[in-house]
Amino acid sequence: MKTKILGLAAATAMVLASTVNAATPKAHEGARNVVLVHGGFVDGSGWQKVYSILKKDGYNVSIVQNPTITLADDVAVTQRAIAQQDGPVVLVGHSYGGVVISEAGTDPKVQSLVYIAAFAPDKGESVQKLIANPPPGAPQPPILPPQDGFLFLDRAKFAASFAGDVSADEAGFMADSQVPWGVQALAGEVTVPAWKSKPSWYLVSTEDHMIPPPAQRMMAKRAGATVVEVPGSHAIYVSKPKVVAKIIEQAAHGKK
Hints:
Blueprint: H1 2-23, E1 33-37, H2 48-56, E2 60-64, H3 71-83, E3 89-94, H4 97-104, E4 110-116, H5 127-130, E5 150-151, H6 155-162, H7 168-176, E6 181-182, H8 183-187, E7 200-205, H9 213-222, E8 226-230, H10 236-239, H11 241-253
Parallel strand pairs: 1-2, 1-3, 3-4, 4-7, 7-8
Antiparallel strand pairs: 5-6
Helix pairs in contact: 2-11, 3-4, 6-7
Domain AB hydrolase-1: 34-246
InterPro entries: AB_hydrolase_1, AB_hydrolase_fold, Sec-Metab_Biosynth_Hydrolase
Keywords: Hydrolase, Signal
């Protein structure tokens, strides 16, 4: 009888262990920490939909609020967010946020990088240098002349250039809640690009009117990134959060 009881106990333990393993969030199979870095003209609130999906899938998600005054400041803020994580990190950047993660991503905790319609500069490059010579026929972002060292997009043209596939109400709010983007931040140059030592993923937004898709493809290829192309505006992280969350989770699991 004692042997049967022990056998039953062992079987029960195996069933319980199986149940626990099945219920474990898939995030635990790879990196479980995700740090999201926003770009210029916007703040971290735009990540809300992506955040909700990742949290539901079991990830620990942190959102960086960049001052977007200088690259050095934004890198420092991002590094503090990385330092707070309890294990490997997937570092994600949108637009100018790609410059930030390229500089901050050399941190030992960073396991992989994800660029969402983002700049992926090489050593010595900045946003200012990358946009200096746009390809022929590329749309010109409606950036207004600097005011006290800061840039804004023309509110009347914001939706068409930045958020063409976002609802009119949401795009209007984004236009009216713009964050001043410091000219010094645009001029900030990357010293040691993290993508040279860390695996990277790149989501190309094929209807982007801020960073031309050919430029996105060039930077992704140069970085040796795993590339996914999806129709969408520059604000694809707002308009198609499921697509964005999916590529982040692929990076967390190291799936090419």
